[in-house]
Specification:
Blueprint lengths: L2 H4 L9 E3 L23 H17 L6 H14 L6 E3 L1 H12 L3 E2 L2 E6 L2 E7 L4 H4 L7 E5 L2 E2 L5 H8 L6 E7 L7 E6 L1 E2 L5 E7 L2 E6 L6 H16 L5 E5 L8 H11 L5 E6 L5 E6 L2 H4 L20 E5 L6 H11 L4 E4 L7 E7 L5 E10 L15 E2 L7 E2 L21 E2 L7 H13 L1 H10 L9 H11 L1 H7 L19
Parallel strand pairs: 12-13, 13-16, 16-17, 17-20
Antiparallel strand pairs: 1-4, 2-19, 3-10, 4-5, 5-6, 6-7, 6-8, 8-9, 11-12, 14-15, 14-19, 18-19, 21-22
Helix pairs in contact: 7-8, 8-10
């Protein structure tokens, strides 16, 4: 796929969303000239016709032909992998509306596991985030309607709605004793994707919560503001990508370009049978969505050279993994935190002749050193666990996920029993949280202000950038380790 094609097709770096807008465009694909030479699977078509005939003749309700064939198409695509789907006219229209304007939603990325709807990551400062929805939660009911067997697309439709309207979600959380019921109010989802803070003189913090159209320019503006506040060049920078579910591919390339030498490889793709696709570099033509001024013009020069750490966790997915992988491979940043989500696939939206569309996984991402993110994610150079995060959810947990093409074991989510507090401590915390709602509100607001004293991962990231020798020693440690090979299995007599 050529670089110019990047501007014409919808390359998703996210899963399905409830209330998160992405910009995309679409392109119809002509059929391969050689495809007509392939013989049709006559027996399979005959069997499908038999099933159709039996339903029409014996099912207790009369189903229209349109309903039956639409159901067959949905099932055929949904069985491919968790991120591919068939969209009818209404669904496709809603997708285009959601990616071009504002609409009411909750603000979270969702997937599917074991027949239930699963939260991959709530988006910062949205109704879902403010209500305490966490990565790894299962949504078992939406307004008292069970989600068992519900598709991701159906769940998204139920959770979207007019801003100001109410919705109730019933959540199942791995470390909770009983279901959690949250009452939310839909809102216009307009996420501010970049925040910054001067942690102490000389050391800046930049938080990217999602990759949007203005994210690249916003990172530049954040760096300029930090330099101005510091009254001079920065000595070190921390880039926080925790719980960033991804976004625009161009945004990932542009943010990487802010810290890498011009022309550096950022990400490549490979399609069927490992066929090479795009190679995107740290150049304006690869991260600018339209003609105009380079959004990185005026970027403080020190961002290319000062010690840099990147924070990731299991909620860091796709576009954020692309950035972390590129900076890790080029030994430009030390990755700190826990292993990322592991969504390393590209989705392309292809419109169909009847007004519907199909979203298909068409390629996998690879880091500059030709590592695949898929089902494994980015391993931090310096692992620091989050004591408040007892459960890690990842791509490998999703039913029908694609395995890593380079081998090695899939990395599943797990409960961190080492960090789980004793029962007595849990009971005390529960009693305390119930007593003082003011403290809870203050804690919610303080989450927007980075505090190394209360955040072990951030504290370690800051320590590293303040100690250049230790930072240098930690560069690329995890990238040097080969993926563990799958154990070969043999039949035993």
């Amino acid at each position: 796929m050529s670089k110019s094609t990047l501007k014409k097709v919808a390359l998703y770096t996210l899963g399905a969303f409830s209330g998160v807008a992405l910009s995309l465009s679409v392109q119809s694909f002509a059929a391969d000239k050689d495809s007509s030479k392939e013989s049709l699977p006559v027996q399979s078509i005959r069997t499908m016709a038999e099933v159709y005939g039996q339903i029409k003749a014996n099912y207790y309700q009369d189903k229209s032909d349109a309903e039956l064939f639409e159901g067959a198409m949905k099932g055929m695509v949904a069985d491919l992998d968790p991120h591919s789907e068939y969209m009818d006219k209404k669904g496709y229209s809603e997708l285009k509306e959601s990616t071009s304007g504002e609409f009411g939603g909750l603000g979270m990325e969702i997937g599917q596991e074991d027949g239930f709807i699963k939260v991959i990551s709530p988006i910062e400062d949205t109704p879902a985030d403010r209500a305490g929805v966490k990565s790894g939660d299962f949504i078992v009911k939406i307004d008292n309607v069970a989600t068992r067997g519900m598709t991701v697309s159906e769940a998204v439709k139920k959770m979207r709605g007019k801003p100001g309207t109410k919705i109730t979600l019933t959540l199942s959380r791995k470390n909770a004793d009983k279901p959690i019921i949250v009452n939310l109010t839909r809102a216009i989802i307009k996420v501010k994707s970049v925040r910054s803070h001067l942690l102490e003189p000389g050391y800046g913090y930049i938080r990217v919560s999602q990759f949007q159209e203005r994210t690249v320019e916003s990172v530049k503006e954040a760096a300029q503001a930090l330099e101005k506040q510091n009254k001079g060049p920065l000595k070190g920078v921390i880039l926080d990508l925790r719980d960033d579910p991804g976004g625009l591919l161009t945004g990932a390339v542009g943010v990487s370009a802010a810290f890498l030498p011009s022309g550096s490889n950022v990400v490549s793709t490979k399609g069927r049978d490992g066929k090479a696709g795009m190679v995107l570099k740290a150049t304006p033509e690869d991260y600018m969505m339209a003609a105009g001024k380079d959004p990185l013009d005026g970027l403080p020069a020190e961002l290319k050279t000062v010690p840099l750490t990147v924070l990731v966790n299991s909620g860091s997915a796709s576009a954020s993994e692309i950035v972390a992988g590129a900076l890790q491979d080029h030994k430009r940043a030390v990755i700190v935190g826990t292993q990322s989500f592991g969504k390393g696939s590209v989705q392309t939206v292809i419109p169909l002749s009847n007004g519907s569309a199909v979203k298909l996984t068409t390629a996998l991402y690879y880091t500059p050193n030709d590592r695949s993110i898929q089902a494994q994610g980015i391993v931090p150079d310096v692992e620091v666990k989050d004591k408040d995060r007892l459960y890690e959810s990842r791509e490998a947990d999703l039913i029908g996920h694609i395995g890593n093409p380079l081998g090695g074991e899939d990395v599943n989510g797990k409960i961190d029993t080492d960090n789980a507090p004793p029962a007595a401590e849990k009971a005390a915390d529960k009693a305390k949280s119930g007593k003082n709602s003011k403290d809870k509100d203050e804690d919610l607001s303080s989450r927007r202000i980075p505090n190394p004293a209360k955040d072990d991962q951030l504290r370690k990231a800051l320590e590293l950038v303040k100690n250049p020798a230790e930072w240098q020693k930690s560069l690329g440690l995890a990238a040097k380790k080969p993926a563990p090979k799958k154990e070969s299995t043999t039949d035993k007599e």
